[in-house]
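User: Reviewer 2 asked us to show a designed sequence for the structure in our supplementary figure. I'm pasting the structure tokens here. Could you produce the per-position amino acids so we can include them in the response letter?
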């Protein structure tokens, strides 16, 4: 194994949930890596696939139930309209700082060279086809394929 002095060469990000806050976390980290000259790849699995599903990616929500960072009781977070209200508020704040919306952010990531993969198991489980997904998804691969792509020194893997 070669010595790389701790240099980060590639970020491998696994996105398993398509709540707005998780999707933006993954996208910002991948984009930040590219801006620093670091290769980045995102593996969309399970509910994370909604972030790249053409019919769903523009309608992602903030999780109000089971999200300790919301600082509201679960009972309140589960009230009708709370999720829509929280999502609306978050989108307004992101707009103030010129954060691109999910479809535009996907285009930015793709244009910057972020490689994106869809999980075969999740695709089969949800009966999705590659045509259902954002065009920037390179391929539908197994988790084993993703691990093979993660080999080498200087590779960091994040699970979101």
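Assistant: Here is a per-position design you can include in the supplement:
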């Amino acid at each position: 194994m070669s010595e790389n002095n701790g240099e980060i060469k590639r970020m491998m990000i696994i996105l398993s949930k398509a709540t707005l806050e998780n999707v933006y976390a993954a996208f910002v980290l991948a984009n930040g890596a590219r801006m620093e000259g670091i290769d980045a790849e995102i593996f969309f699995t399970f509910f994370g696939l909604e972030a790249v599903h053409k019919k769903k990616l523009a309608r992602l929500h903030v999780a109000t139930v089971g999200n300790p960072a919301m600082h509201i009781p679960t009972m309140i977070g589960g009230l009708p309209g709370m999720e829509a209200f929280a999502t609306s508020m978050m989108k307004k704040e992101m707009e103030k700082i010129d954060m691109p919306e999910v479809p535009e952010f996907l285009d930015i990531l793709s244009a910057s060279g972020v490689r994106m993969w869809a999980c075969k198991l999740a695709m089969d489980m949800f009966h999705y086809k590659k045509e259902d997904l954002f065009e920037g998804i390179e391929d539908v691969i197994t988790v084993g394929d993703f691990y093979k792509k993660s080999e080498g020194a200087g590779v960091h893997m994040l699970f979101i």
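For the response letter, you might also mention the following. The helical segments are 20-35, 74-77, 82-96, 102-112, 120-126, 143-149. The chain has six helices and five strands.
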